[in-house]
Amino acid sequence: MVKMADIVALAKRRGFIFPGSEIYGGIKGFWDYGPLGVELKNNIKREWWKSMVYERDDVVGIDAAIIMNPKVWEVSGHTEAFTDPLVECKVCHKRIRADHEQEIKKHEKSHKGKVKWTDPRTFNLLTEVYLGTTEPKQKTYLRGEVTQGVFVNFKNILDSTRMKIPFGVAQIGKAFRNEITPGNFTYRSREFEQMELEYFIQPEDKEAEKIFNYWKKQRMDWYISYGMRKEKLRFRKHESDERAHYAKFAEDIEYKAPFGWSEFEGIHHRGDWDLGRHKLKYKDDETGKEYTPWVIETSGGVDRTALFFLIDAYHKDKDRVVLRLHPKLAPYKVAVFPLLANKPKLVEKARKVFGKLRLSFHSAWDERGNIGKRYYAQDEIGTPWCVTVDFDTLKDDTVTIRDRDSTKQQRVSIGKIEKWIKDKINKHGKKI
Ligand code: ATP
Q1: Strand ranges (E), 62-177
Q2: CB distance 263 to ligand 1 below 6 Å
Q3: What is the CATH number of the domain that holds 377?
Q4: 192 CB less than 6 Å from ligand 1?
């Protein structure tokens, strides 16, 4: 089993994820993505957008503002019901979410039963912000979920597109929650990104069940098609007492992380809760019937997805660490090296190859140390292929391409590298 400490150390050392505001001692629940982390996250978001928006006729995207009129949060029920219960140990003052049984048991065990809990108190998760320069300032909230931006624009979307029910609206963006106990690295943060789809349907139970099951399968298949191991994934139904205030029915996709089975995407049947509360309706042009549509939602976290892809891809073999990321998610697709850094002809030729490849793929350049060390350094950040320019290249215009996962090497002519890589990227991974 991968250790979280190894993931955290690799993420920091190689520039995936840094603690937020680190030089001032950090700030709990906030993380900064480094040069490789931003690539991984962007790749996840781009692939998600491709499959949810570009490859479908029935989904459009939007990008709503993070700060909205506070009425949105009052009407949606968040100011009242977007809460978590908290208990505090009266002996050591440790605070734990009252619904996190495992953490409670762990605390009781490690303190040999000398624990006294307060009664659970509820805390609202919305983060308050104050706008304006003169008193009284206007109080509102940083959005606690990106979804509301879709609902409040429902009419705008209908008026400006030709979407007809059933159809979906996709959105990726930041959300903020005043989490009581941020932790497990980026897993529970106070600032994070969500990628969500709101799929509007007719208010019928059979239709809702069919579409709920359809999206469940789509989303699970998506993770598997990017290489996540099937045996580390499962669905979990929400019990009626843990469902969010808006949900009629909910199931999570969970990953078996080093800290236990953990949610990273929820499929929710929100019924007519949100559109109903915002008093928004849909009119069927053909039948003239007006009704409040139901919504099936897929709500994933970009940060949790990035973390679980890092964990799932991490392999250690003695002192060699390999991140077996799907090439579409890997920060760099290819690295280019001159065999020797002190041979100007090799460097010049390798720079030319690099200059060409970087136009098509995010490419890395390395001329430090020996080839073996450069391979190790690229393996550790998940670069699928390394191209080496050597003395034979100067004679016959071919290079060596070394594969990250098999470590096998192959000779390819310079003119064909690009197509070779494109073919490999497209063929990579399992077909569902
Ligand atoms: P949890 O039970 O872990 O608090 P949730 O059920 O409240 O999560 P949702 O409201 O369904 O989460 O949010 C949808 C997705 O947003 C989650 O599946 C997760 O990927 C992401 N997410 C929610 N809260 C956080 C957080 N504090 N940090 C990082 N990602 C989060």
Answers
A1: 83-88, 95-97, 121-124, 127-131, 138-142, 167-176
A2: yes
A3: 3.40.50.800
A4: yes
